[in-house]
């Protein structure tokens, strides 16, 4: 039987294009981010360093994002998440850590177009000014009434994740905020 | 009559005539008009009635301080009451109706109240409570309810949409007058990220009307040049139609943008609430002119002097042909000069000061305008419109010295800085004796977390009324002004008859005599006086009445004004729409609705949903004409006899991992969790530190240092937060990580005698036999082609497997179970069947048997409380005297003698009554259902000494007078030996 993401194929237009991006591999890693073992494990598993506070580093197969002082989110292929967890477990077995596949706990959206910053700024209390936020930055925050996190993959392109159960709510919030006529003209 | 002038009107476009209606009358205005200027242009001075006496009310002001010109605006889904005509931009098709009159604006029966003013004094409303007592309910209340209220309440759903917008700036400047523009220039040149907001559609504040030259150009040209300069700065954003509504801690400011009020029907949001974080806030909010208190100052046609010239200069509208200016300062002379230049008549400038020889006064005199000094207004002639004024000596008691015919009185009692935004977050004020106004105290500003001022003030908002004070570095040419004379009553010796006609608060009908009466009745605090007299409590929040009122109070109390102080300035500055506050949160996205991976199937199969936290869970699945009760009974019977399927995905699932995980689990739960073996499950209770039961659930030990905690559906988030609270704040040195993985898994309870068969039929690599996977065991492997964790736990008393699969496979797994289970009559069941089945088994439910005051011992759960452990959260609290009191009500089962279902929340009656005359009680029902399995009503309840009273019959109350008899029994009604689940 097929695997299903939260809102398969959902799209909305207006000031931006909003798309549900289907299933995305995601692994939560909790560990002492300053430990050399953590750095080595992250590099071995993803090929990159531990990102700094509020940063995200894109890799060939996904990305590594800072989530909290002791937490990272690793993006990878959906089918590769369990092996990513195993990789981390093997590399970290000598220190205290937690690695878990959370791919299916999430929904994943793209917000693309010149109004991307504005649409998100209607819902999230984040400084989205280009001087403060751009590709490489990661924000774990609130979107309307639910938790969410987002980052930019290009000047006009935002990737956003939320919990799977509220995918419909988040999509609807984004869609109404993107409706034509709501241009702010701020950024 | 007011009318449109042949020329002039800097803000209107005379080429763009638009039609609108007032009280059904079709009228014409120009693009750029406000509703107020358009009404005046059409000769409509009378716009409403006052709140209490239903006195005729005319337009007084030209801005947000307007107390009178409130209208019911729009129709149906765009209807909104209490809209200020002075700040409503005119648009084609605008329809407005006047408020608070019956049967018509011109003839209003309520105006009779005005003749009864003697019996409706200050505090009338409160006095009706006291004496005579029966009158309140039968006489006063119905009358007050009928006549009170301004606009009508909207009846239709709001047709518009609204939104929020979050921005972070270095400097936020509120107010787009000369002072705000200058502040923006400075901050912009320093490279800061600047947002400048202005509440109206036009920039420049008062300067374009009031004149003066800046650096050799007219003020208006300076404004336009400055706007251009700012427009070229990429770090500066200008936002008109955006009002600073409130200033809060940490530089948080709310601003209210009218996005499409002036262009309704477009797809744009109507209002946008800007939620701004500002490093620094500059208030350049200007000042508001004060009325003068003379008898009849509320008659339509009495206006603020600056408003009169605003209508002439900005809109090309003459408020009337003959205007008497009455003032205590030089500024009002500008009105006389402008009216004269527009070809209108100014028969007299009435100046309360003994002398008037400032530059503006000299100019007026040079134009031939008569100036009467040391003079005041004794009375205003006219009812629905000014017809003249009687003059008197300001120093006297008001004997008429002269009558002058006029149709407008332009009054000016000086200016009050708009200190609202400065004051919202704690900024203090000082009384400026020379200018007779409260102004921000630079030594006591609103302070941020660093102890530094985060709000500063500039321009007229700071009491700096002259251009030269606002722009100290510029070359400014403007007439110099002589000091004003504070005038709080005109004439100063007016008797009671006159004082009872001097309005302070035009909207709420508070007069000088009312404030003086309050003072005589012992009201000393300005805050109490405000509430007693309703001074400043109208929708304008005292923008015109505040200072005049407290000056009158201070005189009545013989205390200096600063000692009496001001009332509190609270946000918002002017009312903002409820829609703007709600933003996007309406309709389907009023609140988040959480959906499981199987939710769509439930919808497709006719589920009746119930909210469980933010989740929607199927309550039951009625088929065809089936009632909900019938569906629940069918689901239970199917489950008990063959196979039921429950979507249990909402169950909280939290990973707890680390070397100290066992120790942590022992603290969280009342029972021992560290001794649990990998591969096994254990039911546990969680208490808060006060000992009260907060959550329960099954813990599975995944491996040596990892536990999977199952919480209740509603508990997942707050139990995770509870764990993190203890880990981060108390046991920060314990090596434990937690992760909330609730949504990673779709979980299905496969329940009933055929549960094992259907799973075995799906195949896979798991041995599900009773030997390999015994009760309270768990295993990981494949069911069919699904990766699964299988927990042999039961909340129904039947053979039961809870199977978790990745959420992305949840829907497929659910359908596979139905397909494979068809031969067993696989039946989806909802939360009500779940509840009934657990109650039949005597299992407690968090939120039913617990309510935040119940401890596990009350529920007979002592077996789940470890005596071996040194500590757990709640242990010490449970040892306190009240918790160990044997008289605490304890859990029992209740079975009605007649088989009926006990009412939910019903009390067990005890003999006698308590001190309040209420019936004594000895217990209460916590859960109650009809058991289709047993065929009668079953319940659980907490009863005094319950477990020792087995077999005793108690009476339970109902909503009516009847009582229901029920016998105390064991709470386990079904399969007490647990033979059915352990197979």
Q: How large, in whole angstroms, is the Cα Rg of chain A?
A: 17 Å
Which word captures the global form of chain B? elongated
- How would you describe the shape of chain A? globular
Mean pLDDT of chain B, rounded to whole units? 94
Query: What is the H-and-E element order of chain A?
Result: EEEHEEEHEEHEEEH
- What quaternary form is this? heterodimer
Integer tally of domains of chain B: 5
* CATH second-level architecture of the largest domain in chain A: 2-Layer Sandwich
Return the CATH topology of the largest domain in chain B. Answer: Gyrase A, domain 2
Q: What is the CATH level 1 assignment of the largest domain in chain A?
A: Alpha Beta
- What kind of sheet is the major sheet of chain B? 7 strands, mixed
Q: Over all CA atoms, what is the radius of gyration of chain B?
A: 37 Å
Strand content of chain A: 25-35%
Class inferred from helices and paired strands of chain B: alpha+beta
**Tally of contiguous helical segments of chain B:** 27
